[in-house]
Amino acid sequence: MSRKASGLKAWAIQRLTAIYIGLFAIYLVLALMFAAPADYAAWKAWIGSPLVSVAMLLFVVSVLMHAWIGVRDVLIDYLHPIAIRATVLGLVALSLVAMGLWAAQALILVRLV
Amino acid sequence: MTTTSRRPVYLNLLKIKLPIAGIMSIIHRATGIFMFLALPYLVHLLDLSLSGPEGFAEANAAVHGFFGGVFVFLIMWSLAHHLLAGIRYLLIDVDYGVEKEMARQTALGVVVAGPILGLLLTGGVL
Question: What is the CATH number of the domain that holds B30?
Fold first, then answer.
């Protein structure tokens, strides 16, 4: 399996981030199910509270790392020509960083206004 | 060693008969790729909902529409399958559920529970 070939570090990161993503996703879904914010003010107050905000930012970083390792493994299995593989991997990396910054920006800005 | 390189390679996914754990594994990958592809829209919804009362109402309306509902269901199914299959992999890492019969049953359990849990969660959040 490519994950093993690429090192124990990626294997460990994938599992560590999986545990955090799993626990936080369960919390997030349960919160949306049983304590859904009724309006913008409630949503902003919840997601802008210090603890939830930091937990969300950590969630964003974890998803980026987890998605990078996962998508990389799948692409390496199916894309063989090295030029195409390198190009697509590069685009995936850039788009992941862009989306992370986008989400972080929204999460941080809401605490400032 | 030369004999191994002459073995026929036959990996047409539509024609080979995969064991249930293989099917579960492919869905694990497909749901991961789907959630990766859905990230821009998810971040857009987050950004929109945090932009102000109008944006919040817009994002709320988007997920409550027909296509929004289908999208939320696909995300919830993906999340449920990916999470359950992930827990299964973690348990196998610590040597739990490695035996053939147990591995088969848990794989089938994940494949069946995914859409059911996805539907329940969709009903719960919408």
Answer: 1.20.1300.10
- At A84, the amino acid letter reads I
- Partners of B29 on chain A (C-beta within 8 Å) are 70, 74
Asked whether residue B5 is domain-assigned, the answer is no
Q: For chain A, what is the largest distance between any 2 Cα atoms, rounded to a whole number of angstroms?
A: 51
User: For chain A, what is the domain count?
Assistant: 1
Q: Which residue range is the domain that position B106 belongs to?
A: 20-125
> Do residues A26 and B121 touch, judged by C-beta distance below 8 A?
no
Q: Looking at this predicted complex, what is its ipTM?
A: 0.92
Write down the residue that tokens 């102000």 correspond to.
B52
pTM score, two decimals?
0.90
Alpha-carbon distance B27 to A79, whole Å? 19
- Measure in Å the smallest separation between the Cα of A39 and chain B Cα atoms: 8
Whether residue B11 lies inside any domain: the answer is no
Residues of chain A with Cβ-Cβ distance to B13 below 8 Å are none
CATH number (domain holding residue A75)? 1.20.1300.10
Query: Which candidate, A55, A45, A57, places its Cα nearest to that of A111?
Result: A45
Q: Which is it for the CA torsion A35, B86, B37, A9, positive or negative?
A: positive
Tell me: the pLDDT tens digits for B95-114? 999 999 999 999 999 999 99
Rounded to 5°, angle at Cα A63 from B58 and A97 = 80
Q: Is residue B32 part of a domain?
A: yes
CA-based end-to-end distance of chain A: 47
CA gap A67, A64 in Å, rounded: 5
Q: Is residue B1 part of a domain?
A: no
